[in-house]
Design brief:
- With 269 residues, the chain is of the alpha/beta class.
- The protein contains ten helices and eight strands.
- An eight-stranded mixed beta sheet has the order 1-2-4-3-5-6-7-8, with helices on both faces.
- Strand 1 and strand 2 form a beta hairpin.
- Helix 1 runs parallel beside helix 10 (251-265), helix 4 packs antiparallel against helix 7 (182-193) and helix 5 runs antiparallel to helix 6 (167-178).
- The protein is globular, with a radius of gyration of 17 Å.
- The chain starts with a strand and ends with a helix.
């Protein structure tokens, strides 16, 4: 069973956590929240102190004033480490969470013990203009025209799920997107899409596992390989029968692959 903590100062960050040992922090994607990791958290908690957060402006975390500086997410991760009184952590990031993990390593390299980068990418410069336009159109434009997150959730979820027959994963993703904070979500889209960081992972020098769903059409296995090629000795794994949400679509396979990797990086094995 996990516990919930609210980490200050404002904007306060809500985290769920369980287990003991080296700290593992799970970072959700642009349409997610900490609930996305509830199928993984207790498994990781068997060997580690496992934490899943709601990023600022998401889930049970507080919203914030003004535009979003993407680097603020990385500084918030540092606040989580400070709260749990630890110098280093293993960072698991999915999609946008993987990019946050990369920024955290860039700004706090000595605080990263290992990285797991799931279905992430090298910034929207890696997308064609048409792909970028469609990403924004599906998410931002309807909200600016009066729709609420719950209205766009089924449409966006359908583009992310690898196997449409996986109704449980689809329902979890729809629920996740329905819980978005509209204004904070729009600010995150604007900050994320306009950010160029093609070389974000080039300086990574810690053990890294790069993962992608076999059926992911947003952040494809080809993109995952490009990331792995930038990181010395990175491990690359493709998860069969999964789309963009590998940890939700194939949790048993995901949990086993990630837990095996984390155990190999842990100081106390």
């Amino acid at each position: 069973m996990y516990h919930t903590a609210l980490i200050g100062p404002s904007p306060r960050i809500s985290v769920d956590h369980c287990g003991d040992g080296e700290l593992v922090i799970c970072l959700h994607g642009i349409g997610g929240n900490k609930r996305n990791w509830h199928g993984n958290l207790e498994v990781f908690g068997t060997s580690f102190h496992a934490v899943a957060w709601d990023a600022r402006g998401y889930g049970e975390s507080e919203d914030y004033e003004g535009p979003l500086e993407f680097s603020s997410f990385a500084h918030d991760v540092a606040r989580v480490l400070d709260y749990f009184e630890t110098d280093m952590a293993h960072i698991i990031g999915l999609s946008m969470g993987g990019r946050i993990a990369g920024f955290f390593h860039r700004l706090y390299p000595k605080r990263v013990k290992s990285l797991v980068l799931c279905d992430t990418h090298l910034g929207f410069e890696a997308f064609t203009p048409q792909e970028r336009q469609e990403f924004v159109r599906l998410r931002k434009e309807p909200l600016l025209n009066g729709k609420e997150p719950k209205d766009i959730a089924p449409v966006v979820a359908a583009t992310l799920i690898g196997d449409p027959a996986n109704t449980l994963a689809f329902e979890r993703l729809v629920d996740s997107m329905s819980r978005l904070h509209k204004e904070s979500y729009i600010k995150t889209i604007e900050s994320s899409v306009n950010l160029d960081h093609a070389d974000l992972f080039s300086g990574v020098d810690v053990p890294t596992l790069v993962m992608a769903g076999e059926l992911d059409t947003l952040t494809t296995p080809v993109m995952a390989k490009r990331i792995a090629d930038k990181i010395k000795n990175a491990e690359l794994v493709t998860i069969p029968a999964a789309g963009h949400l590998v940890n939700i679509e194939q949790p048993e396979v995901f949990n086993q692959v990630v837990l095996d990797f984390l155990k190999r990086q842990a100081t106390d094995r």
